[in-house]
Amino acid sequence: MKAKNFIVVAFFGFIIISCNVIDDLLTFSIDNQTTVTIPSGFPVNTALELVTPDVPSNSSTAFENNNTNAELVKDVKLKEMKLTVTNPAKKSFSFLKSIHIYISTNDSDEIELAFLDDINATSNTLSLTCTTAKLDKYVKASSFKLRTKAITKEAITQDISIKSDMKFQVTADPF
Predict the structure, then answer these.
(1) Which of 13, 29, 43, 152 has its CA 20 to 30 A from that of 50?
(2) pLDDT by residue (tens digit) across 22-43?
């Protein structure tokens, strides 16, 4: 009886491990980048909303490079979003109180992508907290839009350019 239970447990363990190994083999990343500019003269403690121009998703090329296509993609999540002040050169994120970034397409509703509240940064880079939202339809689209809602805690005396680097984790179905 113990041997039978051991065999059953070992069999199911093997199946679970095999599925995880297959998922790892079918998982890859898509990197995207865009820039947004916060205009000077914006009032302190006021919500500022900025919308990026369309961001090309580059997903078709990434799917092809990973031997899959959009129909076989079963899960897309944002794994990392890093913001970097690119201009002025020595500017840090000390001016920022909070930031929330949303994603949308012409065919899909807007959802929150990443955020960071109570910012107390003295560097020119920030790593945002990524939501667990399922992003398949956004990344499969030819392009998407990002809307940024930021609240400042300091007066902005000159335009600030911020580069956003996004890393999406994609898992494809083998069938």
Answers:
(1) 29
(2) 444 478 888 999 998 888 887 7
